[in-house]
Amino acid sequence: MKQFLKNILPFNNRTEMPTALFVVKKILAFWLCYIAGLFIAEGVIILLHFALGKNMLVGDVFDAQTITLITYYGYIIISGVALLYWKLIEKKPLSEMGLTKRFGNYFIGAVIGVILLAVAVFAIVLTGSIQYHGFFGNADILMIILLIGGFIIQGATEEFLCRGIVLHTLKERTPTWFAIAVSTILFIIPHWSSLFDGGMSYGVIGVANLVLISIIFSLLTIRFKSIWVACGLHSFWNAILYCILGLNLSGNDEMVTAIFNMQSVGNNIWNGGVYGIEASLITTVVLVFAAILIMVIGRKQVKGK
How far is CA 244 from the centre of its chain? Predict the structure, then answer.
């Protein structure tokens, strides 16, 4: 039993074990970093409230905008835990986690995210399920900039965990498809709580879209040999959807501020209902096409070498 625990507990970099135990070990490493980061972040938020004269015990908390910013910037603590885990326990260079010197790939990912989102939203607008009502005249530009910064941190953090710690370690010992599958399952679980709020059909489509976008993140990470492209796509998809277009982000319909005033018309499978376009069937089609395109281009480049 002692040897078994030594093998699977993620507090050492032991690799001499059956593959099944190695997989369990890396799944536990994901949860260690995620839960430890959340716990520390929650502690910091509580201390921050009391330090600034707020008494959470009687409901005296920051306003909604400040809480939103604290939530997204709090992901930097989870990132810090993930990076410390990699350096202190895995004892590997950050480049083996995908954090290479090819930071320019981040902007490639951002462009891909903008294109995918633009195609999906434009197609949904054509169905009449989303309407464009012009610009918000009172858009808080400073808040938008701060939110974008928060999304940059949040998107990168999820990639550090799923594509960095999980995908990069598992693909050394398991088939690539299996490593992608495990990282995808772990990517979906934290998003699960609000997926089915609008009904079963939206939840099923939402899960399918999470699977597709996670596969795309993984394929791009492998294709570019860098995690930065996935970070750019992930962060800018979220930032533009929420801060620029003013649409629901993963079921979060509490809009803080945005540039454009775009609103869903009713609840249907085209606009994704209360979950937003990430539970839209049109988004599914766009993501399927993108995943196929990435795989075809990747195979052609391999054959051309």
Answer: 18
The Cα–Cα gap between 112 and 243 comes to: 18
At residue 72's C-alpha, the angle toward residues 69 and 73, to 5°, is 80
> What distance lies between CA 127 and its chain's CA centroid?
28
- Quote the tokens at residue 93: 């260079």
Taking the whole predicted model, whether its pTM rises above 0.85 is answered as yes
Tokens of 7: 């093998």
Pairwise CA distance, residues 261 & 251, whole Å: 17
CA gap 49, 166 in Å, rounded: 34
Question: Taking the mean position of all CA atoms in its chain, how far away is CA 68?
Answer: 16
Supply the DSSP symbol for 249: B
Closest CA to 251 of 233, 218, 227, 278: 278
Q: What is the pLDDT of residues 125-174, one digit of tens each?
A: 999 999 988 888 788 899 999 999 999 999 999 999 999 999 999 998 99
- Say how far residue 67 (Cα) sits from the centre of its chain: 19
Do residues 77 and 156 make contact, with C-beta atoms less than 8 angstroms apart? no
What is the chain's alpha carbon radius of gyration, rounded to the nearest angstrom? 20
User: Given the structure tokens 């599958």, which residue do they identify?
Assistant: 181
- 3-class secondary-structure state, position 218: helix
Could you tell me the end-to-end alpha-carbon distance of the chain, in angstroms, rounded to an integer?
Answer: 49
What residues form DSSP beta bridges with 130? 264
